[in-house]
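Structure ticket #2291
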Amino acid sequence: MTSVVGINEIENRIAALKTTAFTNGAESTVGLWILIQENAKARNTFAGAISLRELLGISEDAMEQHCGKYWRKAFTTDTCGFRHRQWKGCTFISVQTTDEDECNVPTETNIINRGDIEVEAIQNLIEKIVSSSKEDGASRDTEAAAADVDAMDMEDDATVDDLDGTLLQNIFNCFRLDDMRRTVAGVSRKWRETALDASPSPEDYLATLGEEYIPSAIEILGQQQEQETGLSLIFGLVRQNTSLQNAIGDVRVQQRVADAQQQVAGAPTIDNCLHLLNCALDNLEADRKEVPVAMQHLARRVILMTQQRQNEQMDAEDEEEQQPRRKRQQQQIIPLKYHDNAKKTKTMHLQVKTITRSCKPTASTKIKQQHIRRITNEIEDAMTERLGVNGSDELRMKVFQQLANNNGLTLLDSSETVFTFDECFTVLHKANLSINQLCIVASFIRHMRPVFKGMLWPNQLKQGLCDIIGKGNLEFFVKQLPLIVAKNEDKWAHRPFWSMTRPAELAQRLLERAILDGSFEDSIEFSLLLNCIVVVWGIDKADRDTAASLRIGNRLGGNSSKHTQLVAATEDAAECYTNIMQTFMSSRYPLKAYLQELTYDNYHMLVLTIGEGIKACRCITIQPTPSLEPCTIRQIRINLVTDPVSSDSVDWDEPHDNLPHTVFYCEGDELRICLIQTTEEISGIQIKNSNNEHTTMNIQFMIPILLESLNDADLREMKIVCQQIIGFPSNDYKLNLALTGINSASAKNPCVCCLAESSNFKQLSEALYRHRDPSCDPPHKDAPKREGTNSTKACHDRIMAETGGGALPLPEYRKREITAKNGSCFHEPAIDMPWIKIAHGEALHIMNGIINHLNSAIFLRLRVIDSNSSWFQKAKSILAAVTTQLEEELSLTKTGPSSTQYRKDYLHCQKLLRDARDFRLRAEQLREKWEERSNEVDRAPDNVALAAVESAEAKAIEALNAALKHAQDDTGLAHQIKLSRGNTELKKLLEKYIKGGSKKPFGPGEYCFKAGLSVCGANFLTQHGGNDLTTDNGMDVMDRFDEVATYAEQAYPEDSEEAKEIRDFFELCRQLAKELADLLSFMKSQKKCNATDFLNKLDKFLKKWDAALPDKDYFLKLHHLIHHVVEFIRRYGMYGRVSAEGFEAIHALITKLKTMSRSQSTLNRIKTVNGKTQTVMKPEVMSATVKYTERSTGKKRGTYKRKASTQSTEAAETFEAYDVETVGGVVYTKVFAGEGVILKEHEHYWRMLTTSFTPPEWGEHFQSSTTIPQEKKRKICSGAELNLN
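Resolution: structure written out below.
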């Protein structure tokens, strides 16, 4: 029942609800969830759930009046004291506890519903606490004033020995009595002394105690001999108050309390006093009342008595030793936070007097210490006498080092024996460990080698690493979006998408890291660009996540995942056009606008460096306006003003829409830049235009530069430059198609750079024709580039205009014509990428595509040769025989006169089985009726009915035996059924194998080629039939192709036609592989390159390609290589520098970091992954990483020789022999655990098609080969080297 209440009561009720998480009764809400919404969806989905407002007993009007219309949002913040979770579209909250379980989520069993026993208990507790706060308000204010007479001003961060006022409030005002009893025993000594000094006098106790607690209080307080008030004064107060005497008499009626009081009166020991206190607490618990303030003070007094007893014991020990310890009285002011009745935080400063005793060593220990000190002094005196007073510390250390060596000891410098937190993170990062794993290693070392305690690992290792990872990271946001999660795009689900709030800051951090660690490289060193910053971005799909990444190209070895950072990602979603448009390329988020301007080259980077060795560096991204045409090189003049500006006199400019600041600049202008600083730090820069002094931009650094880390010489070596940012998209071709809006790679115009039709891909480019013969004009013109009226956006707009936005009911052929005529751009482009920026085609995927197309062409040619082998021809004949047997002898479909004997026997057996089933059902019915009659009372057994039951059961057994006899003995039908099953499965396997749907080799040629690849270290991907290689494997195969070809050439007898055909084919392939390896090495290089060298290598490669594979059509990636890569190299003078190799490699790192984060919260998991990846960009971690790299880098190794996929050189895979059976003199092999059979002569084919078995004769010709080592012969002949499943 709700009512209109005030704001104080609302707060009291919410606070009372929070206390239910610290109770153990029916009112406990630990692990329970409360519905917070009351809309129609919540009422329909969770009709029985009680809402938060109903549980609190507050009306909706009261909540909106005092807490606002959107008061429910206040219960979903991080600091509200509640946890919140979404389930079935509704929000639930749970009271937050210190040891909460993140795995606890709302379910059908842990939601509080109307009518539950918890509802009444919770509401009763809330009403009890609220009414108690109203009644005791005045008395509590009096007590607070008396206890806070000497209080000082409030302090927000006041704590007492790590226990703040909120925790004390929970202990004494919120906890149940049994919880309070346990908590009292666990508080620290400093807190006990503080709380006891704050306690009021016994008179105040008696004035505030309820009548039922007065006897217990008198008995306890009466034992405090050291207090001003003794027993006489207390009993005097009692005699003056008649009500107190009556209360004492009433309570002593209870035998248990009376016994406890008598024990205290007879023996006033601390144990008896504690027993009496427990009696009083039990009475309170029985009545289910809250602990009053007086009882809290009573508990504190008992603690004081315990402390006094400990002091007395220590005094007794001093008397026995006759060497009393010195007592030191310390006086300090300790602030203690607490909450008053209005829930306002107050702080009272308590004057604490503590008595401490200095620890006195035993006599033997003291003598030993004096002896050691005397010897140490003698050694130091002798060393000073020999070395002199001014002797060098280095010489002293050498003496100590020699002494340590002579005695088998190790001398350690204390400043060098403990890692810093930055070095610990470097260990964590380089070893791919989680924080918990590193802490386990540290703990293991401490326990296994106690001598290292206090060494190697810093104190609070875990906390220090968490601070490094969690602080100073770039801001990001997380959204739950409905995304496609199935590859065929027919299933949707909510998945997290996160992105950097200001993406430009990530590029700034990466550039700062490159400059500070000395790996920065000027653009002119690796390209034709002068004074530019190369930024490469890409979106790539891993197994589960799709990630957008950034990296700086201006660094040595910058194509590594170590120098790549995520800027956005989705989890567990498909990589498709719809998802990309909702996430990375959505105009609602700043990422799309940033990537668009980055690709247009509209950004510039201001780079400030300080110090000759660059001790500090800060980078700021700006966008000069008005912008020029996309991809236009633009130089901006700047001038550094030496006089700084005080930060007190400036207002910082915030970036618009979280994008870089726009700065007005025209030709002839000059940007004047001065520093903004205080006496302690450089906070930012101020930018003014020389022709427009009124336009001033004040930009703040992400991290200020501390002046204390710089000297005057460093400040004199201060430089600032402005360099244009050249952005390059680096995506695989599938994603480029999605970003440009082209339907797919199978479209009529699938190229992302031009309008070439797929049927004309074999036409060479004009550049290649002119390279081959400069005197002749090319026979064909290059297809129009996708720019101007042929741009992807213009083409899409025309398609939409002609199809009415896709809504006109046009025939399908007409839609295809319109789409093909307009460049196949049916979808709206996600982002405008100038064709020259994607002309590189992404080196990694182009190389991989060419390698795998060559690989598949070789396999196809070998299959053609192997299809004439005896093994494959026999497979065809077996398929024909099995098919004939199934259709003729084992057919169940033929009827009439042509029906087979198998069909007749099968139908007759079915009839016998039906008869047996009918007999069995009749027998079961009779048995059931007979048992029912037998269970009736006073009924004689019916022997006639029992005989009928037994007769029916005998007939059922007889009928079943007849069916079995017919199937096994009379006709052999059982064998025919098993043969039918075995042959049916064998037919399916053979059909798939012969049609080429299986990756099983057709014959020895294909087998030996794959064996050669495997022995040379190649690994096959599972995608696309399992014959594709990774890029690294593919390049290794091209380098060692001569060795691989040797294996394939030994597949057939040397004088056979097949062997001659294979040798001729592989001789051409050897020449092709050599030229391809040379071209791939050029494409992978990070150095500056030129178009002429590229055309030379491309021309040689294509000539060998056409010679080896004359019938193979050119494919999309090969067309891109021929027509557009040369234009990119001619424009920028680089190629491999902008590949996506780093983007591909970072997925493994992200997967590793995600597995380390055990948090069930999406936000916390993403925060942890981002923190660990961004920490490597922090200056302190960078210095530790550089030191590690310098010390761990050794001599560069030679060519890496890959080992075979299977390390064993002797053991071939062993196969168990199949069981056989003989029927009619014919031997059959059992399959399917005996439930099916096939002919014994078909066993080898069954084994190869279901296991990795290969015929032994396929390796026989290697035995006579003199070109293959004996060890590798055993590998190939064993058949164990191949993954043929």
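Closing remark: The two ends are 69 Å apart (CA to CA).
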